[in-house]
Amino acid sequence: DIQMTQSPPSLSASVGDRVTITCRASQSISIYLNWYQQKPGKAPKLLIYTASSLHTGVPSRFSGSGSGTDFTLTISSLQPEDFATYYCQQSYSAPPRFGQGTKLEIK
Amino acid sequence: QVQLQESGPRLVKPSETLSLTCSVSGYSIISGYFWGWIRQPPGKGLEWIGSVFHGGTTYYNPSLKSRVTLSIDTSKNQFSLKLSSVTAADTAVYYCARDWYLGPGYSGYFDYWGQGILVPVSS
Lengths: 107, 123
Hints:
The complex is a heterodimer of chains A (107) and B (123).
Chain A: E1 4-7, E2 10-13, E3 19-25, E4 33-38, E5 45-49, E6 53-54, E7 62-67, E8 70-75, E9 85-90, E10 102-106
Parallel strand pairs in A: 2-10
Antiparallel strand pairs in A: 1-3, 3-8, 4-5, 4-9, 5-6, 7-8, 9-10
Chain B: E1 3-7, E2 18-25, E3 34-40, E4 47-53, E5 58-60, E6 68-73, E7 78-83, E8 92-101, E9 108-113, E10 117-119
Antiparallel strand pairs in B: 1-2, 2-7, 3-4, 3-8, 4-5, 6-7, 8-9, 8-10
């Protein structure tokens, strides 16, 4: 199985900040990396698929980049509704595995 | 707008079988896509369980494969999960989701999710 490691596990930031979250795969996964946002008590929501494609309805302040083993999710200017936990997930092979999550908190 | 809704018993006893159904609206499951189940133990991360196609093709997480059965009922636009011989470790919120399967050799990503259903395993 391909293992996914996110960093940092948690992050404190302020409204308006630019934030980057990193995801590393245990082997190359080309561009087959996806990002989700989850708020407490809610289902995850797809943000980005295949590394950099924005899912329908997702604000343009969210962007993704990377290929191979190293990927980033960037939020260009944090909004109050962005404080949540973010997960990466590889779709290069089965089983699709998620990272352990990065909790983004208000500073 | 694709919508999914999980339903099933809210408590399962150890050693019994957990059975959940996902009802899909706004999209006909016979039109395509795989349909999957993902779970999340309280306070923990996400674990994919398996996915099923309308033709009956399935793929499972090897760690759960021996205990999981997925099925699909196109007449009701629903798909179902059965997880046998449950223990307390199977206590989780169970989500159903549409699986954008990328093809043989790949897996997929999950673009629409149900709200989730918490299923405790306890005597």
